[in-house]
């Protein structure tokens, strides 16, 4: 076989967007999937063991992308899922007319598939105002989980 007969394809490593975890192991400030949404846990109350032998964890959490509060009750010994949440810093290169962002990482990688945030509503305008001032660079924090990416914070960076 000659070298040009090989067909090398890149494939996904198969990493899951969520990981299984026992409900009793989830802590306040951690993450949990509730109704298919990635959420940050605000509080956990544990009820005592009932007739069936399981203490129950009542989770109060907030969706990390919309800010909507959600609740779930799971027996502490039962399994639930936890989203894999990744945060990364990007510098804004351009803001398009339809609020799409052109971003660049410190390593020089570019990203064009993220828009200005819809939640909270005022953040999109604050980012646009900071960008339009033009004196400083604007850096954004992009949070990714379960196939969704969204800008969650920004800051002006002095040159």
UniProtKB/TrEMBL annotation:
A family per Pfam: IF5A-like_N
Keywords noted in UniProt: Chloroplast, Hypusine, Initiation factor, Plastid, Protein biosynthesis
InterPro entries from the UniProt entry: IF5A-like (IPR001884), IF5A-like_N (IPR048670), IF5A_C (IPR020189), NA-bd_OB-fold (IPR012340), Rib_uL2_dom2 (IPR014722), Translation_prot_SH3-like_sf (IPR008991)
Domain of life according to the entry: Eukaryota
Family label: Belongs to the eIF-5A family.
This protein's name: Eukaryotic translation initiation factor 5A
Predominant location: plastid
Organism the protein comes from: Skeletonema marinoi
GO BP terms, alphabetized: positive regulation of translational elongation; positive regulation of translational termination
Compartment(s) of residence: Plastid, Chloroplast
